[in-house]
UniProtKB/TrEMBL annotation:
InterPro entries documented for this protein: MFS, MFS_trans_sf
Keywords: Membrane, Transmembrane, Transmembrane helix
Transport as UniProt keyword: no
Keyword Transmembrane found: yes
Protein name listed in UniProt: MFS transporter
Pfam families: MFS_1
Superkingdom of origin: Bacteria
Species assigned in the record: Actinocorallia longicatena
Amino acid sequence: MANPYRALFAVPGARAFIPASFVGRMSMSMLGIGIVLMVTGTGRSYGLAGAVSATCALSWAAFSPFTSRLVDRHGQGRVLVPMVTANAFMIVALIMCAELGAPDWTLFPAAALAGITSPNLSAMIRARWSHLLAGGGPPLHSAYSLESVLDEVVFVCGPMLVSVLATVIYPAAGVLAAGLFTLVGCLALAGQRASEPPARPREQGGGRSVLRLRGMPVVITVFLMLGMVFGSADVGAIAFADEQGRKALSGAVLACFALGSGTAGLWYGTRHWKRSLSARFRIGLGLLTAGLLPLGLIGSLPLLMVMIFFAGLAISPTIIPAYGLVEAMTPERQLTEGLGWSGAAIGVGVALGSSIGGQLIDLSGASASFTFAFAAGLAAVLAGLLGGSRFDNKIKHEFSS
């Protein structure tokens, strides 16, 4: 069987935009954790740190569909350059508020502006793949698998890097590094116009909101619940490592979660699937939730790292078909917007999960945050099971071959 990943790198433009998008996405695994480490590193509480991190994530999520719609209408390059330039200034403002002893309330507008100006590169790069492979070539699910694997590599490297920078170098160093990755990667991607999807002005791309498409609310709801799983697991891992006196290893715990997902994602992309997208989606949800159950019962950091790796094995096999469902249900002219809503839902979920998890940690310790992650996973399974028929009947094509 031919290697689909080798074929993807042979697609015109791929060897340039894959590394650029990878660099630009490093911040998505660093900024939220970096804010938590920066704020707690200045002597403030986990509750405040989680709330500031949640503000950044919520602001990004609220504006991500809007900026994704702009990308559909005007093109990736024209939107990315001014956006990431503004983001660099907002990151510096957030660091100054934290490190110069400004009142706690100033952290919230600074974090909000940093989130608003952060681009949704995951949506943009998946839309780029959909455009490039529309005429044939490697299967699209292999491209989505590659992107999920790269996302997980980001989540393996990013948390460890930001944890070391914030705990060994300086509390704000992780946030600063995240901002630099965004700026460099996005500017490099913006210059690659030949491979980006064509702009589709309003007169060509009218129609109802993607949220009104049958089945889309179900998928978005599940993405929201998954975000809550990831957000509460993240702050739970940081707090657990802190409780064990090994706070610098918090990034390594999260890296194990991502490593499990990336390993499964590589395997997933090489398979020729006979099960439907929706069936794979629901099976993945069940396996992920089952893997979360023991995390709140563990009292050893090495054991937690092992168990969270096995829980992570179900992430990519859930997220890849979920993005496939979005691609299958959404008109091409609105694909970046549809993918943007998916990312926004995860962002809202991460914000809620990190905020609620932070409050639970302050009250009852890290195990409470892991228990909440399991509860959010159960809610995702329930939504997928009860609403699955809505997207089963809407899919415009099955792209799993």
